[in-house]
């Protein structure tokens, strides 16, 4: 991705502590393992709401892939 000036980030409604634990747990034990992708916590659902992937009634975030260009256009 970086060869094409593209960057991948992972956004979750989990806390930064949960994401750290997930990253530090080996895949053989159900963790993510040491990946080279930033893991971002969205506990207050700000990003999820901004990008229209938060379901207010159920208080869940929909799985989504969002592409944003260099002008910050989705």
From TrEMBL:
Xref: Gene3D superfamilies: Glutaredoxin (3.40.30.10)
Which Pfam family would be a valid example here? AhpC-TSA
Q: Which GO terms describe its cellular component?
A: cytosol
Write the record's keywords in alphabetical order, separated by commas.
Oxidoreductase
GO function terms (MF aspect) = thioredoxin peroxidase activity
Segments forming domain Alkyl hydroperoxide reductase subunit C/ Thiol specific antioxidant: 1-74
Q: Which GO terms describe its biological process?
A: cell redox homeostasis; cellular response to stress; hydrogen peroxide catabolic process; response to oxidative stress
The highest taxon in the source lineage is Eukaryota
Sequence similarity? Belongs to the peroxiredoxin family. AhpC/Prx1 subfamily.
* Alphabetical list of PANTHER family matching this protein: THIOREDOXIN PEROXIDASE, THIOREDOXIN-DEPENDENT PEROXIDE REDUCTASE, MITOCHONDRIAL
What protein does this entry describe? Alkyl hydroperoxide reductase subunit C/ Thiol specific antioxidant domain-containing protein
What is the source species?
Bimuria novae-zelandiae CBS 107.79
Native organism taxonomy = Eukaryota, Fungi, Dikarya, Ascomycota, Pezizomycotina
């Amino acid at each position: 991705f970086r060869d094409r000036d593209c960057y991948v980030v992972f956004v979750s409604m989990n806390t930064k502590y949960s994401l750290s634990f997930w990253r530090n747990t080996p895949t053989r034990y159900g963790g993510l393992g040491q990946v080279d992708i930033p893991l971002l916590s969205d506990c207050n659902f700000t990003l999820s709401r901004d990008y229209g992937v938060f379901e207010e009634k159920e208080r869940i975030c929909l799985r989504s892939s969002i592409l944003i260009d260099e002008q910050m256009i989705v």
